[in-house]
Structure formats: C-alpha cells, structure tokens
Amino acid sequence: MRIRDHREDDIPEINLVPLIDVLLCLLIFFVVTTTFDARSVLKLELPRADGQPADPQARPLSLLINAQGRYFVGDREVLRTDVESLKRTLAEVAGDDRERTVLIRADARTPWQAVVTAYEALGQLGFRRVANATTQSAQAKGEGQ
After folding, report:
1. What is the C-alpha separation between 24 and 103, in angstroms, rounded?
2. Which of 10, 54, 120, 140 has its CA 20 to 30 A from that of 18?
3. Confidence (pTM)
4. pLDDT above 50 (res 42)
C-alpha cells in the first residue's frame, strides 16, 4: 500500500478580493479628500477701468436699502418688499429712462435677499447701469493719510 503525499497537488492561489477591497477604499479616500480648485477651470480676463469720472450732469437714481430690508427709491419709500412693488415704484420714479444709472446704497447689515430682489427688479425693468455705493474701510483711510 502506497501512501501518497497530497502536498504536491495543492496549487497555490492568490485571493484578490481583499486586495480589491483595499484599493477601492483607498480610491474612495483619495477622491473624497482631494480639493478641487474651481478657479483653475475658469479663465477670466477682468475688465480694466481708466478711472475717468462719470458724466456729472447725469444724476443717478438712488435706491436705498436699510438694515431691515426696506426700499427707498429717490425720496419715496416702497411700501412692500416684494419685486412687483419695487418695480412699480422704480418705474414711477425713473419714467422711461432705462439708460439712467441706478446707485444702490445698501446698509452693511442688509439681508442679502433684499439686495438680490433689488437686482432682480432692476433687471426685469431693463436697467443695465447699476452701481453699488461703498465707503472706505477704516484701515484704508488710515493708509491714505
């Protein structure tokens, strides 16, 4: 009787499932932790300004927005804060002149939605020349002296 050694019949096998699991986890980790820089995708050439003052005879239409989100067009207060009321008041004050510059003076504590509503109303009426009024910061004032 011959006893056979079965070790020669065993064919070594490499199990790839754990390796694939580890590689998949690493791939997910690197994809999640990678920061994507959107600025590198957008190639913008910003406009230049020569610093010439605007035409002094063209008085801009003043649109004030207070800290509570209330609108004041010229010397008139808009009674409601919806787009239609603001459009109606802007149309009454400006008349048919849509080439007139609109100067938005918003309080620094104004809710952003109020400013967006103002831009929406101006865009729907056809105003294309819109400017934002700002003041110099205290740091910038100190550097200029």
Report:
1. 55
2. 10
3. 0.56
4. no
